[in-house]
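Researcher: Good morning. I'm working through a list of sequences from a screen, and I'd like to move beyond sequence-only analysis. For each chain I'm collecting a predicted structure so we can compare shapes side by side. This is the next one on the list. No need for commentary yet; just the structure.
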Amino acid sequence: MKAIGFKTSHEIDHEESLIEFETIKPKAIGFDIVVKVNAVSVNPADAKVRIRTALDKELESPRILGYDAVGIVEEVGEKVTNFKTGDRVYYSGDVTRNGSNAQFQAVDSRIVALAPSSLDDTQAAVLPLTALTGYEALFDRLKINPTKKKTILIIGGAGGVGSITTQIAKELTNLTVIATASREETSSWCREMGADYVVNHRDLVNSVKEIGFDTVDYIFNVADTKGHWDSMVELIAPQGTICSIVEFEGGVDLSKLQDKAAGFVWELMFTRSMFNTEDIEQQHHILTDIANLVDCGRIKTTLIQTLNGFSVKTLKEAHKKIETGTSIGKIAIDYTK
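Model: Good morning. Structure tokens for this chain:
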């Protein structure tokens, strides 16, 4: 089968930052299904892995990137009970395995769900990674009680994760959502996603106070953990919790949270698949819930732009757009065109 990956970490404009190659089509064993990939989305994780994995070295075989995908089940393993050949599925995959930048992909069925029937392949492809991240952050990490009236500040509201998390929070909880943005178009997007308030992350503390909140109960940082640390410490309510998905170099002073007895927790949606946790199948259930919410019209796709064709050129274009750090919503690639 045809696949696209990399052997050495390069800037995206380098001729070999991404390369096309032939490899063996995977087989379905155990809990795995093999999916014919029709569409994918490109996430910041794709660019981060490409840039960091093979610095000053060459991998023995190319690493296939790609996480989000929509496709058709071609083969099922002997332990698979919830899918059959011909099913149209969506998923975000496993960061430790070959990804969706290939014609076919083997993926653990326990982190897969039937794709939303009301969306086309590209509209559905942009949802899994961000929806899993947002859902897990709200309910598994921040442990939000859906019935209580609380406030959450989402730092990075216009990106893929911020966009879908805002929608999930408004549909499934009683949270007042404050999202950050700094441009007119990103502010408008945050409001379209359902944010109750939009504040400027360039002057975060004052912006939040100006709309009438001295503190917030929860903070979900999807933009810059270290850069916003002091602001988050000031804004988090006593006994509140901060969750982040953004790693950083160096350290932060956790003791600044001590007086407020506030907590800090990480969210990484790959954790369940990386460690084959006993609740790995929870991701199947989350994606099923998201698909139902979409098909009921309660959550909408965050797709902004679609690129066509499974090629090095198309993937490089998508990586370039992601690496600007200014994109709104999500970018998808339709492999069938």
